[in-house]
Every structure is written in structure tokens, then in C-alpha cells.
Amino acid sequence: MPKREYEQRLAAATVRVQASDGKHSRLAGFRLLVFIATAELAWAWYVAIVSVWVLLLPPALFVFLVWLQSRAATERRFAERAI
Prior knowledge:
- This protein is mostly helical.
- The chain contains two helices and no strands.
- Helix 1 runs antiparallel to helix 2.
- The protein is rod-shaped and about 70 Å long.
């Protein structure tokens, strides 16, 4: 009985680690997209296509994504400790 319980918990922890890895990778990709969008918006502001206020949104989104990614990394560390 205890061996079966241990195997179930190990399998669950492994699934959590894999899910956290995927989440972390997706967030990293989104951060890259936000960075590229910020560069494009800066160019659009430079040639007077958009207002300077539009440039405030991407950095705020970037900071939010950094926060989410740090939470995903913490989740992954907790899941790894269970393995």
C-alpha cells in the first residue's frame, strides 16, 4: 500500500513539474513578443503614428508577465522538491 501511494504522489509531482515547465516556456515566449511589440510601438511613436501614452502599456504587461513567470518558477521548485 505505501509503495502505491508513493508512486502516485511521484507521478503527480512529475506531472506538475512538466506543466510548470510548459507554463514557464509559454510565458517566456509572451515576454519576447511584448518586447518586440514595444520596439515596434516605439518606432511608431518616433514617426508620429501613435501617442506616447501607448508606450506605457507594453512595459506594464512585461512586468506582469515577469511576475507570472516567477510564480511559475516557484511552482516548479515546489514540485521538484516533491520528487
